[in-house]
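Please review the protein record below. Tell me whether the encoded fold seems credible here:
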Amino acid sequence: MKELWSLFRRFVPPYRKYLFLNIFFNVLAALLTLFSFAVIIPILEILFKIKEANYEFIPLGDASLKDVVINNFYYYTQECIYSWGPIGTLMAMAGLLVFMTMLKTGAAYLSSYFVIPMRAGIVRDIRNYVYDKIVLLPIGYFTTERKGDVMARMTGDVAEIENSIMSTLDMIFKDPIMIIVCLSMMLFLSWQLTVFVLLLLPIAGSVMGRVGKRLKRASLEGQTQWGVLMSNIEETLGGLRIIKAFNAEDKVVDRFHDGNQEFFRITRAVQRRQSLAHPMSEFLGTITIAIVLVFGGTLILRGVSGMNAASFIYYMVIFYSIINPAKDLTKAMYSIQRGLASMERVDAILNAENPIHDPEHPETIDNLKGEIRYNGVTFGYDPTVPVVKNVDLTIRPGETVALVGQSGSGKSTMADLLPRFYDINNGSITVDGHDIRNLRVHDLRGLMGNVNQEAILFNDTIFNNIAFGVKDATMDQVIEAAKIANAHEFIMATEDGYNTSIGDRGCRLSGGQRQRLSIARAILKNPPILILDEATSALDSESEKLVQQALERLMKDRTTLVIAHRLSTIKNASQICVMHEGEIVEKGTHDELLALNGYYTRLVEMQSMK
């Protein structure tokens, strides 16, 4: 169980106090269990006259510890019979048994009481670590991973870890202690018989262990298939409009049913194998008990063992008390195998490397002017297939530079490289002469505001969406930003004004309204550098006019990089760069580029702007 202990080393240290208290009360409960059983022996041997003898008190040190404990226990029982009679002693023994049981169950409760904060806390920490890592990972990570599968790891896999590993924490720290304490007492009673028992137990354990390893492999396969199902669901919900428009319901239903059938097949196999744990452990336990009973009984009948019949009964009671913890521990191990399979999938996120690092000795920019330079920039999502090739571009402070070109020419990639959503393969990008890789990522992105083609909003109020990322924003500041973005009027027309919830991804708003909120958000941030990625391409003419007015106010006196699809929106740009297959093939103003009668002219003609 190397992986299990590795898991504990990573997540248990903050909860050491609870772990020590849990172990302490588990040990106490195990000892009290033994002493509760010990009360049975004098009842059998003296009270019912199975064994009659006169016992004298032996001081500690006059004999072996074993002889002193046993002798003095019988001595006090004998004294009780003389003083209170058999019935009185029986009642005293019964009362002692009840008292010992009360202490034992109280200790058992306290052991569970103290393990709960550790169990719940570790699961909380795992969720936090996974979420924190997802937020920190670069955008490039999610271009190769399915969002549905990532969601499955955060939900289904973490839940499986909770159900399979954390829910068995009590067993992990309770059952082994009970087994160790009971084995110690068994050694105390008869080392010969206990050595025989210790030879039998590993044989049974190895049989169960083989089944457990297979269970882990099957569970990993099952959790992976669950990720595929979650991806199907996420894609279906996101593309429901297209599915219905193309009458593709049967296709996606069949695809989901096939995946669900495969998940059913794997789950069925896993659950059948897991359900084998209890019957197998009980059967192997019964075989072990039968062998020990025959072997131990033979030793006593031949007079080889130092135990008498009553002690052997006590020995078997203790040995039988190991069986239930062993069975529970076996079931826990089977369950843990499923959890470890899920932990492997969660670790794939936790151990993912983020190539976007802060420098060891970060530079700072004082008195930002806003000059941006792309110097021989080359980049490819696959380094062997460059999307941007040896690009040189200078954007002077306060200047608006537009990138135009066909889809796939590298325009949006150029914009994504500036805030270090990806790191370039060759060349450099500088802001006021500072290589962006020498700045803290947080500081770099704090200089920039983004307005994208798809307005990315959150299921929250209008106020919180505009104030997103700006600490301690006041209502007056939010209202002022909304007015500049031409959003105030429609906001006040909503049912609760700025406290209106806009629904998932702003679904309760029109496209133009969503875009104006994202512009208001950028205005409130007040960034010196602005990135506009086709911010008006998905809007109707009336919405485009309102949004364009808001953008012009936003762009005033800011260094702006515009990715444009509609060329009418960038006619007044300081410089227009035409990209083709990852290279800038033309530069100039609108009129200068038209005069060249090249790539830009053909783009204009296609949009019938002339």
